[in-house]
Design goal:
Helix content is 31%, strand content 16%. With 161 residues, it is an alpha/beta fold. The protein has a single domain, classed as Rossmann fold (3-Layer(aba) Sandwich). It has a five-stranded parallel beta sheet, with helices on both faces. It starts with a strand and ends in a 15-residue tail after the last strand. Bound molecules: magnesium ion and zinc ion.
Length: 161
């Protein structure tokens, strides 16, 4: 079974400026591509799990999100990371819709688990909000790391990864 490095997007992969829906507003957090690359070398497949209520709120469209996602995936691949669109899970709903995918609910993790056959206990989740960590734990992810929003993470902080 494969192990995964689950990552929140806004605040972990890119600078969270609030409802980032366009390429021009997307800036990678310093060092994050190196972190993902190194984790992949250690056998973790990268999976992005992101709440995107900006879609449900009408701040940007699903099409905007897909455009931005293609761009982000391309940048990751240019860095040598093996990833494609199927590794990206998003929840487009507003909090009041009560869906099963918006973190802290575990829906996106379960979907990823099923799609890739992931060993959840051996996997990691990095998030910048308590709800990221809660969702991961509900899905049985064995290792979690709560970082501060927009902060560079050194792989050495992830003990045992
Ligand atoms: Mg976040
Ligand atoms: Zn949802």
């Amino acid at each position: 079974m494969k192990k995964a490095l689950f990552l929140d997007r806004d605040g972990v992969i890119n600078i969270d400026r609030g409802y980032v829906g366009k390429i021009e507003d997307f800036e990678f957090v310093d060092g994050v591509l190196d972190l993902i690359y190194e984790a992949q070398k250690r056998g973790y497949i990268p999976i992005v799990v992101t709440n995107q209520s900006g879609i449900g709120r009408g701040y940007y469209s699903g099409e905007d999100f897909e455009k931005l996602t293609s761009w982000m995936v391309r940048k990751m691949r240019e860095r040598g990371i093996v990833i494609d669109r199927s590794h990206i899970f998003f929840c487009p709903h507003r909090p009041d819709e009560g869906c099963e995918c918006r973190k802290p609910m575990p829906g996106m993790f379960r979907e990823a688990q099923e799609r890739f056959g992931i060993d959840m206990a051996a996997s990691w989740m990095i998030g910048d909000k308590p709800g990221d960590i809660e969702a991961a734990k509900r899905a049985g992810v064995g290792h979690t790391y709560l970082t501060e929003r927009n902060r560079r993470i050194d792989i050495k902080e992830l003990h045992g990864l």
